[in-house]
Backbone:
């Protein structure tokens, strides 16, 4: 039997149900919501049970796929910001006080060890005792802490959290914004002097501006504006949306350009299907927050074209989204990463809500089946980092917990699925 026939049968059945039976599809969606929320709880339970650093504070910096802990590993600010976001969002949604305790632990650890109070920036890496080992202001990291603090503010209404959120916003606007060519530069010293070498790690592409940094600043600003309706934030958010659709999105191809020089000259032609599919729904979300019909009308075909491009070139017949490709070579990284699958589910649901085209809802369910079957680690919990294209064998050399491996994309997916399915069901029942 073709190994993908079951998944194809599932999609065909779903398409039939979408055409003929609202009650059947409602039941299917309720199951989807329940499963996603149950997995959301499992993910956060894993982090509560296995990742707290009881000796040195905060959370352990690295745990291997076989659950070997490395308590003396360096700790990354992006990991800790994502932990803060994940537990803050979970607390806001569920009202579970345990989540608030863990969100506060992560938030306080960032303030005590990662936040540079002299310069209103953040250290990128620290050692396990809390001493900076990489003290540069990597702009994507500053964006993630801003995003995390704004979510903590949403959950707690803490004035302190809002104050620190706005301090980081001011730093980004004062130092990182390119006031001549627009957009944001990628990396600065701790004193906010622009760096010659912008790379976070050896092997990264050295570029003055990146899609990744500008996109995540937009996400952070949208989250501030969601709760704090400030005109400066609104103006900066709108500008970033326009930067993304004017400078970064290739409207003809339906993909995002990744690396740029100072004046937006493109220095890479590769596609990153994960970043693209994630951007599709978060650009839409940001535009919805602004509520400007002209902007929303302009963005709608753009975000849908991004989703369709990812489906055409990166989406495999088993329901998994592959990592990277380009026009010349096709898919050049066929691994299927945990976070890409999570973002694909949310993006497909978002595309369905915009268009009401059943193919997108079918894809969301198909990718969720892929996640359940191949990505969730049924032995230890949490998710594998990547699995192979066809054999679906997990890469056990990849850490379970590390500077980028976190409870963020997958836990956010759980909450997005729950909220979006509630809205979809309401529309089906009306």
Residues:
């Amino acid at each position: 039997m073709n190994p993908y026939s079951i998944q194809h049968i599932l999609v065909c059945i779903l398409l039939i149900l979408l055409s003929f039976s609202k009650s059947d599809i409602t039941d299917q969606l309720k199951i989807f919501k329940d499963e996603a929320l149950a997995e959301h709880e499992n993910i956060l339970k894993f982090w509560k049970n296995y990742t707290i650093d009881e000796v040195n504070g905060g959370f352990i910096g690295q745990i291997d796929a076989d659950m070997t802990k490395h308590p003396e590993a360096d700790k990354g600010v992006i990991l800790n910001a994502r932990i803060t976001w994940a537990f803050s969002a979970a607390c806001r949604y569920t009202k579970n006080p345990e989540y608030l305790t863990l969100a506060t632990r992560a938030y306080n650890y960032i303030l005590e060890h990662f936040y540079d109070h002299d310069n209103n920036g953040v250290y990128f890496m620290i050692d396990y005792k809390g001493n900076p080992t990489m003290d540069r202001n990597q702009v994507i990291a500053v964006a993630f802490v801003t995003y995390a603090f704004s979510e903590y503010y949403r959950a707690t209404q803490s004035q302190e959290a809002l104050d620190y959120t706005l301090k980081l916003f001011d730093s980004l606007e004062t130092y990182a914004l390119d006031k001549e060519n627009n957009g944001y530069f990628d990396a600065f010293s701790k004193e906010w002097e622009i760096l010659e070498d912008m790379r976070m790690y050896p092997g990264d592409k050295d570029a003055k501006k990146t899609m990744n940094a500008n996109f995540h600043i937009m996400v952070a600003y949208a989250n501030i504006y969601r709760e704090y309706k400030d005109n400066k934030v609104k103006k900066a958010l709108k500008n970033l949306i326009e930067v993304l659709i004017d400078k970064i999105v290739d409207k003809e191809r339906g993909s995002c350009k990744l690396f740029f020089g100072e004046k937006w000259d493109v220095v890479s032609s590769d596609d990153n299907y994960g970043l693209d599919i994630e951007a599709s729904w978060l650009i839409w979300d940001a535009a919805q927050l602004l509520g400007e019909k002209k902007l929303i009308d302009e963005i709608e075909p753009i975000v849908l074209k991004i989703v369709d491009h990812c489906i055409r070139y990166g989406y495999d017949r088993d329901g998994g989204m592959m990592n990277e490709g380009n026009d010349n070579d096709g898919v050049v990284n066929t691994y299927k990463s945990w976070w890409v699958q999570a973002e694909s589910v949310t993006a497909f649901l978002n595309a369905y809500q915009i268009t009401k085209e059943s193919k997108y809802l079918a894809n969301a369910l198909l990718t969720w089946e892929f996640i359940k079957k191949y990505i969730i680690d049924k032995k230890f919990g949490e998710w594998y980092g990547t699995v192979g294209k066809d054999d679906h064998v997990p890469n056990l050399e990849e850490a379970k917990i590390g500077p980028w491996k976190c409870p963020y994309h997958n836990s956010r997916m759980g909450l997005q699925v729950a909220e979006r399915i509630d809205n979809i069901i309401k529309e089906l029942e009306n």
